[in-house]
Design a protein that fits this description.
The complex is a heterodimer of chains A (544) and B (431). Chain A is mainly alpha-helical. Chain A has helices spanning 2-21, 29-32, 36-46, 58-70, 76-84, 90-99, 102-117, 124-135, 140-148, 162-168, 178-190, 210-220, 295-302, 309-324, 344-356, 361-370, 402-412, 416-420, 429-440, 455-463, 465-469, 478-483, 488-500, 506-518, 523-535, 538-541, and strands spanning 223-225, 234-236, 243-246, 253-256, 277-279, 290-291, 398-399, 542-543. The chains are: A mainly alpha (544), B alpha/beta (431).
């Protein structure tokens, strides 16, 4: 009875949540007996104000959950097995299997790399840090702590410093991007974009004050890049005095020590010159020394913790966005009183639960995947009416990252193994990945939040020789499998299951038959065209 | 902390009205939000019929007004060059523009530009975005604005193309809050975009067949779906197809050698000639540009060489557009982010001068052979009404038959003016 055990442990954690977050314990005992995914569905249904879409068909669900948890579409064998599986709990067991897979950690590492670095660049140590973090289901607060105060001595986590170093890097005439770093600490970990409050209180958002920007700046402003290490690493200069600033509108000089939005200002200790270090820096050994008062360490202690509502809400909102396609607070980095969440009670619940469950990302994603909300069809409930995106009445279409598209194209064309194992004649995985990124990823610093197709991407999928080579016949790939099938109907089924994770309808079967009949003398090419058309279709290119 | 890449200095000049009227807009609503414009508003439908187009020549770094459209020979700051008569009696321009002088009867010059920013970092963006002042959002460059408001021409080529020196790419930043779709498709050195050419393994007939299959798949997917993603995906494939069909636009080997000589074999000449072909093919907005005009040192030798290239390309394209009757529907604009100081510095250079400078235009909606505004005798300041970039945006929108007082952007529910709401078109140059 694993079900029962789960709900008991859940109750224990709830009591903890009340203590930790200081928020009122969530409702009565009767409510607390429900699992999070059930409570989510109730809250969504309560404010739906219209018909809900039907439950997604098995194929639709399977494709979605593979993309969200494993970063690729299912293989044709996985699709067949699932569709033919008659057991009642097959969705839940699939969710659990995917969450336990190695592909989960790879996918999450890629998704969080895109979210946190916004295509600024790549680094193996950073990817290793993310990959091991998600493989071990590292709690989000710990992961953020390791990013905010990177430890060069910790080999498994030192790559976390890339978050800082890439933003502090100087190249060509480009100066470091300290304002961008301050902004991103707020945006990505707190869901608040205080950039516009750098020089004055935010003009349109009353909650964002210049103190917020400058307070965050006081934490990270003294970070510098260490150049003595082959891996990303930072040093920190002592913060000797408060950050002084003046609004460009109100010429009154102010100052602040380190301070989180909504938090207390931290008083600066006074040290005599030369006594700022526990262990002084040593030029001979290139050691950066150990500060007595490290604002980065204080930031890492104070920002990622359950008492910080911004922190809890941000990660709950971002994970919700990742699974559901739209943040409850939208845009994701615009949490403020003038931009309330679409479902305030739900966001409170999610944020509290995330904290109560010690920032267990896997648990949280599992609950989301189990909701009816997540498992609803993307087909609209009724003709003529488009329900608002904020209603979650029908599943929203999500952008597929360049990484998800790459892995899915390889899966669909049956080329995954050949390319990964770099079989003879096969293109190298890294080369294919670079091409996909170049054609389909956003430019640096541009968040990838929504489906935004481009002419460049269309030309890439249409004409790139490497992409097209995947549709030539190689032993065991899609076209090879199709060519061996005599019946047009069998071809159609194999094709649609492989590419779109569903069986074709009658009209689609007829089209396949007709096209094959027209091209009887050149079957390989014809099969390639049929497969290409599905790969280039919207149904394949978005996560729906 | 001296500088911020996101909060630009020009966004800090506020009027009370704008502060009061400003809503909580953010630049975050891009992507699909921006694709709402796929279904063009009625005004765009009307526009499409007329197929008005724009050629925008961007002179990056700051062309000296004194060495171009507003010479002041034999004065304290006039420099060494003479003024010459033009095809319009009484109008004189710098001797560095001998060919353009012969096209003056097509041109409309504004000599009383007075703008705000004297740094490149602020000016380049502010000027090309029409200085909408602080709306809490990043405004689109003029090309993106036109792409949004008018859409592609009937032939479905990308609406905003930039033939530029250097690298290719999709310059989505130009689009600001309109969303990346309205960015510039940039062809570095006029080269075709990657993957433009169909590989030999796919015949034209095969391509048509597979595209038809793709369209059928999208049609089926689109039933009972939110339309945006499917529309957007179909749209970029349509555009890719159109570009593939017109790959000849990138084959400069087919150009008439006499044209190549006339426009100039330098970057600006080649790119302007290619720009003309793009306009003929049906691109809505073509931008070409020339870098290297920031002549803080040796201004006069610098302009001697630069102006010759500009004069060649600009006069040739105006002449050709006029010959083909295209000036009736094409608006030509040649401008920089500011002019250059009358004062000649210790390096025999001129510095940045937004206080009094000139813009040259020609074509649809404009009078021909006119000069509007004037600077004082020394060319230091504007003597007549001063025109800021907001006036120019109003003027250009008027030329394109877009009513800037009626048409607004819709930024996710936040209405935003398309041109500075305290400014007016310059009637002196409007036809």
């Amino acid at each position: 009875m694993p079900h029962r055990v789960r709900s008991l442990s859940y109750l224990r954690v709830l009591a903890f949540a009340g203590l930790v977050s200081g928020s009122p314990v969530l409702g009565s005992i009767a409510v607390a007996e429900e699992l999070l995914h059930q409570r989510i569905d109730k809250l969504i249904a309560a404010s739906a104000a219209g018909d809900l879409a039907a439950r997604a068909e098995d194929g639709e669900f399977l494709r979605r959950v593979y993309l969200d948890l494993a970063g690729r579409i299912p293989s044709v064998a996985e699709a067949r097995a699932f569709l033919d599986d008659m057991s009642a709990d097959k969705r839940t067991t699939t969710i659990d299997r995917l969450l336990a897979s190695e592909e989960y950690s790879t996918h999450m590492a890629e998704a969080f790399d895109v979210m946190l670095m916004e295509r600024r660049g790549e680094h193996d140590e950073w990817m290793k840090f993310l990959q091991t973090s998600f493989a071990g289901n590292k709690p989000w607060d710990q992961l953020v702590r390791e990013i905010l105060a990177p430890d060069a001595e910790n080999e498994a986590a030192r790559g976390a410093a890339f978050f800082y170093t890439k933003r502090l890097e100087r190249y060509g005439q480009q100066d470091d991007d300290m304002p961008g770093l301050v902004r991103d600490v707020g945006r990505l970990f707190l869901g608040v974009d205080v950039q516009c409050a750098q020089c004055h209180d935010h003009l349109f958002i009353d909650d964002y004050k210049q103190e917020h920007y400058q307070g965050l700046y006081a934490f990270v402003g003294n970070a510098t890049i260490r150049t003595d290490q082959p891996f990303p690493a930072i040093a920190e200069k002592p913060l000797m005095k408060e950050v002084e600033f003046t609004s460009v509108f109100v010429q009154v000089p102010k100052s602040t020590g380190p301070r989180l939005p909504g938090g207390e200002e931290i008083e600066l200790p006074l040290f005599k010159a030369g006594e700022e270090y526990e262990v002084p820096p040593d030029r001979k050994t290139n050691s950066p020394g150990v500060l007595k008062f490290s604002t980065l360490k204080i930031l890492a202690e104070q920002l990622p913790r359950a008492e910080n509502e911004f922190f809890n809400r941000n990660i709950a909102n971002r994970l919700w966005w990742l699974m559901m396609g739209r943040g409850l607070v939208d845009p994701l980095d615009m949490q403020h009183s003038g931009n309330p969440p679409s479902h305030p009670e739900l966001l409170d619940l999610l944020a509290n639960q995330m904290a109560a469950h010690k920032f267990d990302i896997k648990w949280f994603l599992r609950e989301l995947a189990l909701t009816e909300t997540y498992q609803r069809s993307g087909r609209l409930p009724a003709e003529g009416t488009v329900p608002p995106a904020t209603s979650y009445r029908a599943a929203l279409e999500k952008r597929m990252s360049a990484e998800q598209l790459l892995r899915s194209v390889l899966e669909a064309t049956g080329e995954s193994t050949r390319v990964r194992e770099e079989k003879e004649g096969a293109p190298k995985f890294k080369d294919v990945a670079d091409r996909f990124n170049k054609a389909l990823a956003n430019p640096p610093k541009e968040p990838e939040l929504e489906f935004a197709p481009s002419v460049k991407g269309a030309l890439f999928l249409s004409n790139d020789t490497l992409v097209l080579s995947l549709l030539e016949r190689h032993e065991g790939n899609l076209v090879d499998r199709l060519i061996k099938l005599d019946e047009a109907d069998a071809v159609a089924v194999e094709l649609y299951l492989s590419v779109l994770t569903r069986r074709p309808n009658d009209e689609e079967r007829a089209d396949v038959r007709e096209y094959l009949d027209q091209n009887g003398d050149r079957r390989e090419a014809a099969l390639g065209h049929l497969a290409w058309a599905l790969l280039a279709s919207t149904e394949f290119c978005v996560n729906h | 902390m001296s500088r911020s890449p996101l909060c630009k200095p020009w966004e800090h000049t506020l009027t009370r009205r704008q502060l009061l009227g400003a809503a909580a807009g953010t630049a975050g609503t891009i992507g699909l939000g921006g694709l709402g414009g796929l279904v063009q508003p009625a005004v765009a439908e009307e526009m499409k019929q007329k197929e008005k187009q724009v050629l925008f020549m961007w002179i990056d770094g700051g062309m000296s007004q004194l060495e171009s459209w507003d010479p002041k020979p034999n004065t304290q700051f006039g420099g060494p060059f003479r003024a010459i008569p033009t095809s319009v009696p009484g109008v004189h321009i710098s001797e560095l523009l001998p060919r353009s002088a012969k096209q003056m009867h097509h041109l409309a010059i504004v000599r009383s530009m007075c703008t705000q920013d004297n740094s490149h970092s602020a000016g380049v963006g502010r000027i090309q975005r029409g200085d909408p002042k602080n709306r809490g959002v990043t405004y689109p460059y003029f090309g993106s604005a036109v792409a949004k408001l008018m859409g592609p021409c009937e032939r479905k080529l990308p609406p905003y193309v930039w033939v530029k020196p250097g690298s290719s790419g999709f310059i989505h930043q130009d689009a600001g809050f309109l969303g990346p779709k309205y960015g510039a498709l940039a062809f570095g050195d006029g080269k075709p975009p990657e993957n433009l050419l169909r590989p030999d393994t796919v015949s034209e007939a095969d391509d048509a067949a597979r595209q038809k299959l793709r369209e059928a798949a999208n049609r089926r997917y689109g039933e009972l779906r939110r339309p945006l993603a499917n529309d957007a995906n179909s749209y970029v494939y349509d555009m890719a197809q159109t570009l593939m069909r017109r790959s000849d636009l990138f084959d400069t080997s087919q150009y008439d050698p006499r044209d190549v000589q006339r426009y100039g074999t330098h970057d600006l000449g080649r790119h302007t000639l290619q720009g003309l072909k793009m306009l003929e093919a049906g691109v809505r907005f073509v931008k070409v540009n020339s870098y290297g005009w920031d002549t803080h040192g040796d201004n006069f030798n610098g302009h001697l060489s630069l102006m010759d290239k500009f004069d060649q390309a600009f006069s040739a394209v105006v002449e050709d557009l006029a010959d083909r009757g295209m000036l009736d529907h094409v608006l030509v604009i040649a401008m920089s982010e500011f002019g250059r100081t009358p004062r000649i510095n210790g390096h025999v250079g001129r510095d940045h001068w937004p206080e009094a400078w000139s813009i040259a235009m020609a074509g649809t909606g404009l009078k021909r052979g006119v000069v509007a505004g004037a600077t004082n005798d020394k060319g230091t300041f504007v003597d007549t009404d001063e025109y800021d970039i907001g006036h120019m945006f109003h003027t250009w929108f008027r030329c394109l038959d877009i009513d800037a007082f009626k048409v607004e952007y819709d930024n996710g529910g936040q209405p935003l003016p398309i041109a500075h709401d305290d400014m007016q078109p310059i009637t002196a140059v409007l036809a």
